[in-house]
Amino acid sequence: MQHFNTMTAAFDLPRAIQQTLTYDLATPTGYRALLVYLMDLLDWADFQIIEQAASFSDTESTNLIGLRGPYTRGGLLLSTAIRPQGTADATQWTVTEENPRNSTWRDGALYAHGATAGLPDLLIKAHAASRIDRNEYKQPLILAGLFGSAAHVSGIMHLMDSGVCAPDMALVGAGTNLELAHTHPGELDLRIEICQTKTSPPAGEYTYDAELTGPMNTDAISRANRVGRTLKAIHSLRQQCVFSVHQLSAAHDKPPTFSIATNEATPPRSPDLKFHLARTTPGSAEDTILSAFTAISPRLMQLVRWHRPLWSRVNSAPSLFSAIRPVRDGLEFALQHWPLPGENTEVLVQDVRSEVQRLLPEHLVSRVDIARSVLPFDAAGKGRLLKTCRRGLYRLGIPPVTGHFPLATEAWLLPAYQVETVVFGPGRQAELHGRGNEHVPLNHIERAADLYEYVIRRMCCR
Hints:
By secondary structure, this protein is α+β, with helices and mostly antiparallel strands.
């Protein structure tokens, strides 16, 4: 098979990918402009297009569906979730002139925010399908771009329950580095709220606002590192003066901030923090909450580790405290956990609730809620689709590697619908998405397009 045969394709794939990565999904205007551009591309590629609302509350959760072949049950689903995520600060984007949306080709790779995530994969699949004459299709082909922060949950649910398609097989897009994945973790986001029964007054008459300095990457590990650096910086400050902490906040896409109240006329010094005089009066002090959290968080991490299946404790992704948010009379700590196949998350949540309550002092109260719970994906390591993908990679000269992908996708739901599912895609999403100079190699784009064409021909054209 020739690489990257564009003679029969409907559009220039590298140029189309570069264009789509310039749109800002965080703004309604950019989001809508992207959908219009994609619908034009699918129209040129001879797809029947359906735009489907994927949420009753979020107007920016949309399924963009392209159909080819007969309108019957069965066939192949090519799905890709496009979930907006913040990116690194501009200083981390050295290749794109400090602009993450200035998509730039350099040294055989495309650099841009989202280069390893869903959009390139969606276009690669559309391009591969457009190489095949519509009269050759004997089985349905469903191309689905699932847009929204919960696309891998509500988006795929709406698609499968809508009656638009009933596929037998699905290739789910993710930046697997051209490896075939038949397992991946779920997502369990817990919100641990710790509040005071009695408010604590400020520790002084002078109030200073503090902000953590340093690079801003938005991947989960970087977010957790910022939380850890902030708590460590607060601990170090206590060696310089007496103060109370107020309004601590560590969001996913912003530098952590907090205020201190002290009797010192000048702010303390820290290599990790910048201070300025506050303009507002501080609320209740949060020091007792932070002390309690510092004491219980190691125990919670230990509890989570021991809930892992025995076979996974060495290679599993670590659980992380990735954010802190002020709430009335307290703080809310976000615990991100990626449960693996065989892990009982219901028991884990019950144990976390019990342990938090047991370890807290009497003057503090707690509440543990589930913000998001997505099951792990665990498919049989065999089947017609997986064998076809392995054969296609072998024909392309790529050693077919089958294994575990460390991020959650919409694949978790599909086995419940008796859909044979494989996760695959270009780029190294787990390592690069949300970080500066995120990029996808051109040869990954070419090889992925060739594999998709190979799979489509064998699943839908025979």
